[in-house]
Amino acid sequence: MSEKTRKWLCRTIVLAILIFLPQVIKDRYFMHIVVTAGIFMILCMSWNLLAGYAGLLNLGHAAFYGIGAYSSALLAIKLGVSPWFGLFAGGLVAAFFGFLLGFPSLRLSGPYLAITTIGFAEILRLVAVNWVGLTRGSLGLSGIPLLSAIRLGDWSFKFYLEKDYYYVVLGAVLLTFFCIRRLTASEFGVSLQALRDDAPGAQSIGIKTTGYKLAVFTVSAFFAGFAGALFAHFARLVSPETMALHTTFDILTMTMIGGLGTIAGPILGAVTLTFFSEWLRYLEELIKLDIRLVVYGLMLILTILFMREGLAGVLGRLVERFRGSGAVWKGEDKA
Amino acid sequence: MDPLFFQQVLNGLIIGSLYSLVAIGLTMIFGVMKISNFAQGDYCMVGAYVALFITAWIPGWMGWVGSVLAAAAVVGILGIVTERLIFRPLLTRWTDIDIIMVSIGLFILLENLAQLLFGATPRMMPDPFGSSTVSMGPVSTSVLRIFCFAFSIVTIAVLQIFLNRSRMGVAIRATSQNRFAAQLMGIDINLVYLLTFALGTALAGIGGVLYGTLFAVYPLMGGMPTLKAFVVTILGGMGSIRGAIFGAFILGVAEALGGNYIAMEYKDAIGFCIIILVLLIRPTGLFGEKEGA
What we know:
The complex is a heterodimer.
Chain A: H1 3-24, H2 28-53, H3 61-79, H4 83-105, H5 110-130, H6 132-135, E1 141-142, E2 150-152, E3 155-157, H7 162-185, H8 187-197, H9 199-204, H10 209-235, E4 237-238, H11 245-258, H12 265-287, H13 292-306, H14 310-323
Antiparallel strand pairs in A: 1-4, 2-3
Chain B: H1 3-33, H2 40-57, H3 60-91, H4 96-118, E1 133-136, E2 139-142, H5 143-165, H6 167-177, H7 179-184, H8 189-214, H9 223-236, H10 241-261, H11 267-281
Antiparallel strand pairs in B: 1-2
Helix pairs in contact in B: 1-5, 1-6, 1-8, 1-9, 1-10, 2-3, 2-4, 2-8, 2-9, 3-4, 3-8, 5-6, 5-8, 6-8, 9-10, 9-11, 10-11
């Protein structure tokens, strides 16, 4: 069997398993966790594009998520726009804000960029809290419509159970994955990495810093907004807390543990931590102590100190040992 | 003139003095070690809890002064421990992004560890002045606030004398300007790092006692001081102590006036608006050096 057919076979098998998963597992709570993990995967992948590939530490990512969620929810509630259109509208509105945030970020890096982006998210959160007429303040928007049913002649597919949303999120994750994978493997992605590692060097060989930074902010914000809109129509509740700093910290922790600047990292991190945190919740019930975030903090510190490549790096090395090549998993992905 | 104006300026200066203590610690650590420590506010929180226990144990005056000293000592030691275990191994590896993220990890860890140990309920510290107030013309404030203000000013003055007059203080400033040249002059860089981190976190601890005295003590109280300290140091230019002092008072007064004349609910956004504007024009802050950003 040639390398190519084996690759396609693997992909088909994985896809088949993913498609048939809800037919096997009927537990609604489990499916709920899977959908949540999927939304976080999109968030982590988009954050990773900025922080991992471009080296731009955006600590206001939750704001894009929130903007997407609020935009789509408001469009559906106030104007009766179809949630399907809202998914993309949410992404586009977030992308516009990402483009705007790109401007002050052009000349900034490190702590300067970190604080500017936190400030951006905090300002938007305060707007969401205080513009009661539009957002209903800290109460949040509730009663957001579900995704509308798809009809093709006599056949229709309604969206009200977790397993229905599973397919939407699966599609969204795959779409995001392929877009971001294409981007990072393209000249654009390589230029971003050059900018991250050596900005003056990249400029000297003709890479246009300004355009690339604005573009990566816009693209990253689009996917975060898209994830936000998905979340809005799934959870049916959006509150200003969505935009709070701890959401960004969750995304950051997942991506770091999965592996910053790798393709597989954000996906691994989001799945592992979403399930791990559910397990911790169960453990908390048993021992009556809120240890979840203590463990998160500790894991983040230990990952950066001792396992900087994250789970993707560790797995990559294991695969390499067995097969002799693990390039797909590692940061220096040549694809 | 509006009598409220002077009242708000006074309130702003008092809050600004609190900001300045935390921010000076942050800016010193950044200047010397290039560490952006997002856990700075959690050192405040630890300091506040130390003070809470000491004042419950020794009432009145003695307790308050003792609690400040104890908070500075405990937080300074905590600072040294975290520097050795977490920040030092990263100084020669990876990038500033890693250091910011590891400090975020420390922030999450300390905050939630405190919640685990002390519970989430906010607690009040006793007022050694029995909540008496003073009036001066159009303005009035509590004796406690005046005392906190004076205490911060004295602490800053002592710190300035230490940095300008003592041998070690000069070594810290020299390292902040150019660590390689400082090393060439025979300065023990490791000792300077240790001392700077201890001093910077101890200042946050003292700031935390004042925060706790004026507001309340709770595990999540560290977030605000961290953000304010960053706004202040970026406003003044990271690494500049003078910038941090000016930045703190500017922010304090701007927030008080903005809260009064623009919109109370957007008070915490004012600082962020200011720095986004300042950074658009001067990416290194008001007092920062050119190479900073």
